[in-house]
Amino acid sequence: WCKKFVEWIEARRKSFGLPGDSPFLLFMDSHSSRESSETLQYLKDNHVEVVTYPSHCSHLLQPLDVGV
Question: What distance in Å separates the CA atoms of residue 64 and residue 51, rounded to the nearest whole number?
Fold first, then answer.
């Protein structure tokens, strides 16, 4: 998923005329399955900033998903 996500970001950068090093944000919960050091390094190398929130709180943040 990570490689496909970076490919999508690269396409977005091109379509908006952004530099290749323009940062993108990725919000995800901090479940241990998402804390792979290889994945986080790959995202960092591709200028993706990862913002995590506590595990098991998606139901509390759902209004943000719908309203923002």
Answer: 15
7-65: pLDDT as tens digits: 999 999 999 999 999 999 988 877 666 678 888 899 999 999 988 877 777 777 776 66
- Hey, what are 63's tokens? 């209004």
- Three-state SS across 39-60? HHHHHHHCCEEEEEECCCCHHH
Report in angstroms the alpha-carbon separations of 8 from 12, 15, 67. 6, 11, 23
- Look at the block and give the residue holding tokens 């994945």: 39
Q: Is the pTM of this model over 0.85?
A: no
How far, in Å, CA of 20 to CA of 46, rounded?
Answer: 9
